[in-house]
Amino acid sequence: MWFKNLLIYRLTQDLPFDAEALETALASKPARPCASQELTTYGFVAPFGKGEDAPLVHVSGDFLLVAARKEERILPGSVVRDALKEKVEEIEAEQMRKVYKKERDQLKDEIIQAFLPRAFIRRSSTFAAIAPKQGLILVNSASPKRAEDLLSTLREVLGTLPVRPLTVKTAPSAIMTDWVKTQVTAEHFFVLDECELRDTHEDGGIVRCKRQDLTGEEIQLHLSTGKVVTQLSLAWQDKLSFVLDDKMVVKRLKFEDLLQDQAEQDGGEEALGQLDASFTLMMLTFGEFLPQLFEALGGEEMPQGI
Length: 306
Known about the structure:
About 35% of the residues lie in helices and about 25% in strands. By secondary structure, it is of the alpha+beta class. It folds into three domains: about 5-70 and about 120-165, no CATH class; about 75-115; about 170-295, no CATH class. The strands form two sheets. Strands 1, 2, 3, 4, 5, 6 and 7 form a seven-stranded antiparallel beta sheet that branches. The protein has a five-stranded antiparallel beta sheet with strand order 9-8-10-11-12. Helix 2 crosses helix 3 (about 100-115).
């Protein structure tokens, strides 16, 4: 149970997050399969384990873990367009008349309804960790849309969920650009070998570097022409490596072997114990890492009234 991406949300009010009450709330909207004429369904699943008895909220110390699953029928637009074109041509040939937009839209709806029961099913899960004492919700996704799907559904079952994306006082791109330009980073952070550089002018170019010495002349030349760093691979202490972007999205998180080995030792032989140990150790690591990340980016911004 190691998150691979991180979208960070700040709770703007204290919420109790009683595990039992949260379990009851999530149970009011369980994940379920799509019916034959449904395009998509969304609901909560047990983060660990399967079966009716598996809890929808995993509790570990001060931390809670929840998961939501989206199920959707995949109906390629090209298939619908081809079927619609064929139907329109058939009507126009047989009835010697033009098919206009209103009728086209109706035909399209009929085709979709006819094709839906045969469409492929795709399932995707999104996990979120709640740290009430830190006032944070951490979503294991790099997609704000997927995170908002989970948070809005959580808000729906709870009746309220006052959260906002966490923001920092200094633009991440400005900090990352300075780190690469000066080759000096915040304490405990180290620049690795990957970055994305963007020209700030309209229609400006993008340069992506992988396995590159970011202290080299080539990179410095790009920076001297006004490009800014919009993604940067970093390491924190000897525990984490990740890619940070200019929207404060943490991507491609990798927990180093020493943490994974420790979780394996702590978790015992049972699969559930291993999952619980890795989740707990991950959250404790985040508890140390995230405040240092916020501080490295100028500190957390607290909007007025929050």
